[in-house]
């Protein structure tokens, strides 16, 4: 009796001293085939989101670079009738703002409404270029959590299936595998979705600043043409 008690105590101590650790790789692989597939999909979406974000942020940053003296030079050239020099300056600047001004300069001599329409049409094309692939980020931010929840549903189905077919004896390890699938994919989907959502909104803010810059310079150019000679 005493020996049995001592053995139980030793087993208890040994059980308490063993801490179960689980790395991220083990957490993913333990979730079963369905969990691995869904995590792989989420990984691809994460890489795509990061690539789009940095590609766009550098493109928008480059597009926002406008010489503070650019419009003053345009004003001087247009006032002096040096249209070719103004066009050359726009070509050298090579930015969304300079391309809009270039479009307006090419229409000088026509009614202001025609010039304004030409600038607006060119502006729409520039905005489309700035927003290239940004909508994909919005899609990823919404799709990633749903894909993660799909893994949750699959994991729970696997767990319930094992319970239903256990015949009264539940295999805790098999049940845990289903729960791992459920929890791992949920966390992965939320992480990818949150990151993509933040990246999307940041790009929207940056793009709006460039659009405002384009509008301000376009209005300044139209005001220049409207000034009395």
TrEMBL record:
Residues in domain MotA/TolQ/ExbB proton channel? 93-215
How this chain sits in the membrane, per its record, is: Multi-pass membrane protein
Recorded GO CC terms:
plasma membrane
Keyword Nucleotidyltransferase belongs to the record: no
Q: One matching Pfam family, short form?
A: MotA_ExbB
InterPro entries per the UniProt record, alphabetical = ExbB/TolQ_transport, MotA_ExbB_proton_chnl
Family, similarity comment:
Belongs to the exbB/tolQ family.
Name of the molecule in the record: Outer membrane transport energization protein ExbB
> Is this entry keyworded Transmembrane helix?
yes
- Where located? Cell membrane; Membrane
Top-level lineage group: Bacteria
Keyword field: Cell membrane, Membrane, Protein transport, Transmembrane, Transmembrane helix, Transport
What stretches pass through the bilayer? 34-54, 134-158, 178-200
What GO biological process, any one, is recorded here?
Answer: protein import
Q: Which organism is it from?
A: Winogradskyella jejuensis
